[in-house]
Amino acid sequence: MSHRITIHDIARELNLTTATVSRALNDHPRISTETKRLVQEKARQMKYRRNKLASSLRSGKSHTIGVIIPSAQMNFFGSVVHGIENVASNNGYSIILYQSEETSALEKKAIETFLSARVDGILASIAKETVDFTHYVELKKRNIPLVFFDRTNEDLKVPAVVVDDYKGAYLATEHLLKNGYKRIAHVAGPQHIKGFRDRLNGYKDALKANQKKAEKNYIYQGNVSIESGKEAVDYFLKLVEPPDAFFAVEDYTALGVIKCLKERKFKIPDEFGVIGFANESFDEHITPALSSVDQQTVQMGKEAFNLLMEMIKINDSKSTVKEKEKIVLEPILCYRESSAGKKA
């Protein structure tokens, strides 16, 4: 087994004390620039790797954060993680990524894993199956810095980074109306998640503002999946007066809507308009290309990490400064063929 290079080895090579080497590697202000350069160069030559665990035990900092995402299959969450990693790396942080697979059980397991790894803080997007938030309440009680992104729960009073879901839904619904669709249905998401609730309200208010009533039978309670999009179409087409357009709570649901309509030989956008939410990577590559609402995912990841860093610093300094409660990003409408309007 090869010998692991330690700061003692570097000190011996340079004829310095281990304390000097340690301070140089940690950019201590009392160590000269030239000594730092020599130590860092020798550390690279000798392929020295810092013992993160020992370092974290000494400093009380692991320079690691935990990130919980509902699913890695959604490009949306991959893109948010890309934003998080980008800023984390620039700040000397690593991330531990955990998929909850939309279940509360795995969400709890993720938190246990993070606490065992002594992470400095946690970023999380709530699983659609989570209705009991005890595990998050426990983090707050233990004063572990926590920030939600995309999916939040306001009752928990946890700082969050979100897109303006209400505005995005309002604009998406209004776009369908402007393009000549008259009976717009909404395939909703689980209503205990605030963002999905805001999208339903944005849809309703856009209809009201355009002198349209939000009919109860034009709202289908889905579960954020391709299957729920298909089931919604089956339900809507059985109505006496079916809708002529669909606003789906997110893009996988919208994909289910499109697949079901195409299987039934309907023409999109000529007979039915469709718009989703999230601007997933597949949107441009299906036929017809799917209109959607972009949630500024990379920016969301960056803002979430920066907000968490603020909380960690406040914790470290035992400051009474109040952290920001919420950062709201602007939705960006991406109009494509699926909502281009009915043929006269």
Automatic annotation (TrEMBL):
Record InterPro entries: HTH_LacI, Lambda_DNA-bd_dom_sf, Peripla_BP/Lac1_sug-bd_dom, Peripla_BP_I
Residue stretches making up the HTH lacI-type domain: 5-59
Domain of life where this protein originates: Bacteria
Annotated protein name in UniProt: LacI family transcriptional regulator
The organism of origin for this protein: Panacibacter ginsenosidivorans
Record's keyword terms, sorted: DNA-binding, Transcription, Transcription regulation
CDD domains listed in its UniProt record: HTH_LacI, PBP1_LacI_sugar_binding-like
GO terms assigned for molecular function: DNA-binding transcription factor activity; transcription cis-regulatory region binding
